[in-house]
Amino acid sequence: MATFFGSHSGFPMARLSTLYEVADGQTLHSLIVPLTVGERDCAHLHLEHLPADSLTLFDRGYPGHWLFALFAQQQRHFLMRLPCGYNAQVKAFLHSGQVEDTQLFVANHPEARLFCSEAGVDPASQIELRLIRVELANGESEVLLTSLLDREAFPAEVFAELYHRRWGIETDFRRLKQTLTLDNFSGRSVTAVKQDFHAAQLLKNLALLMQHLLQPVIEQRHKGRKLRWKVNFTQGVSRLKNTLVELLVRHCAQGLSNVLALMAKSLSAVRSGRSFARQRKRAASRGCEGYKPTR
Q1: Average per-residue pLDDT in the chain?
Q2: Contact in structure between 293 and 237 (CB atoms under 8 Å)
Q3: How many Cα neighbours within 13 Å face the side chain of 6?
Q4: pLDDT in tens, 52-110
Q5: Residue 108: which region, alpha, beta or left (left: phi > 0; alpha: psi -120 to 50)?
Q6: By CB count within 10 A, which of 73, 78, 106, 257 is most buried?
Q7: How far apart, in whole angstroms, are the C-alpha atoms of residue 208 and residue 204?
Q8: Neighbour-count burial of 266, counting CB atoms closer than 10 A to its CB (0-12 exposed, 13-18 middle, 19+ buried)
């Protein structure tokens, strides 16, 4: 595995990348690739799987002129966070005190122009993009960059909450690693690792799909209660995984009905808006206490 994927500190290690739908938690496209393949290279591979008329959210590891130009070329839209020292334009914007500004971005550095050529976009292209300042609760500022230029349709104040929705993919990776125990591979070959990775994505997608199908029933059943309730994801996966193969290879309506009935009995309360200070009581251990693996 180390020969194919690469290694870090003597251990085989691969890069995982997913195109994640923040609205319903579904994985639209997933990659497990060697470490030598960068995050932005993965983003390029995800691009052809983007739904029409969608907005792609990126964190601050992705900015690059070739990616801006690629989105413009394909008439797609994005929102991403920029490092505060990304370039002179961003630094000047921060020092200006402006909440937002529309500017032209160009590939000034020779390396940036080379990346544009490799991506199949014009290195001389000028991309009109919108910078937005977001003030954080701790008093610091972050800078967002978007291709959505219409200030009336998309006012600056909506982007902080919109970008925050990107956090769902962090929870999704934690589900894969903790709840679905992704690193507990069934084999040590490259093929086995890839099969386990994509099987986990399929299992997760189906469990979330069933969870969304059940939500209206649960809402009706618990109408009038103080808290909102939803299917417990860990228990839902546990109910599904033992019957997954049968559900996929046979016409098994009764089996599906039984799984849905079991999932509807395993619920968790939704407590939104909670925030806790992080306290390290001991050295970090493998796993996460709040995310139990499925049985």
Answers
A1: 90
A2: no
A3: 11
A4: 999 999 988 899 999 999 999 999 999 999 999 999 999 999 999 999 999 999 999 99
A5: alpha
A6: 78
A7: 6
A8: middle
Residue type, 179: T
- Residue 29 is encoded by which pair of tokens? 């496209």
Cα R_g (the chain), whole angstroms: 22
Q: Which two tokens stand for residue 83?
A: 């490092």
Q: Which amino acid belongs to residue 288?
A: C
Q: Contacts for 279-288 with beta carbons within 8 Å, 24 or more apart?
A: 287/178, 288/174, 288/177, 288/178
At 185, list the tokens: 């591979």
pLDDT tens digit string along 9-40?
Answer: 888 999 999 999 999 999 999 999 999 999 99
Nearest CA-CA partner of 293 in 172, 169, 168, 184 = 184
Sign of CA dihedral 80, 81, 86, 92: positive
